[in-house]
């Protein structure tokens, strides 16, 4: 039996609203909600403030405290997600057992998909860095330094979460004009001296270091400029705590992709059809095949220039000429 809920629309307006919230072929920017629990620390509030600034304008900040514990009860998150059409959450908590705690949550179809808990071990805010800041709404370049982000299950989840939150994209070359203002660098380390990593014991897992830099292009005497990185903040050191993996059925649904190829979706062509293609400008161009026209049967009496005139028969040895064709 499917865990995903189904809502039957009562009228056309509700039907359109539900259709807009359904998974799309090309998803829009994900909105993140930053919410505080009943007990938080000053460090947690400042960390959430800077993470919120990096996520703007697709972020909502709840100023009031909420009695919320994501790992024990997800009803509040699901209520906030459906009310605000948001699929990402950052919950700030603080307790003696788990001090300076952040819980990252992803939603799918109004339900909690998976969660990740990180502890703040070190923090320097943006205000402590006397450097220029990036513009609001610019997508960052994200760099992950460690093989753990590709091999270790928990660090793979961290990488997936951060890419989802900040919509980072991979680049083989740095654009010279606009498009890139800051870089988010995530490093895992140092590795423990003992061989291997204990997947169950979180205390032995390396810390996660998040740094943010602005990008400045300097003259180098050639066509390729020199790239200078200046730390803009925040600077955060995380320890990896609890994780809640996604339900297999929900994960399968969330990763479901349309049958159309990516190139077809980008060109707007869809399923390839005969005699239809797209030109260099991305416009759809088609060919029409018609039968050969019989001009002798064309109606032309209503136009003076197309009237059929009778030409008298020419005598022997003379050429027959139509005055209109002379």
UniProtKB/TrEMBL annotation:
A molecular function GO annotation: rRNA binding
Bias (Basic and acidic residues) ranges: 275-295
Main subcellular location of this protein, as a coarse class: nucleus
Protein name: Ribosome production factor 2 homolog
InterPro entries linked: Brix (IPR007109), Rpf2 (IPR039770)
The organism of origin for this protein: Kwoniella bestiolae CBS 10118
Domain of life: Eukaryota
All residue ranges annotated as the Brix domain in the record: 30-249
PANTHER family, per database record: BRIX DOMAIN CONTAINING PROTEIN, RIBOSOME PRODUCTION FACTOR 2 HOMOLOG
GO process terms (BP): maturation of LSU-rRNA from tricistronic rRNA transcript (SSU-rRNA, 5.8S rRNA, LSU-rRNA); ribosomal large subunit assembly
Keywords of this entry: Nucleus
Keyword Methyltransferase part of the UniProt annotation: no
Family of this protein: Belongs to the RPF2 family.
Cell location: Nucleus, Nucleolus
Example of a GO cellular component annotation carried by this entry: nucleolus
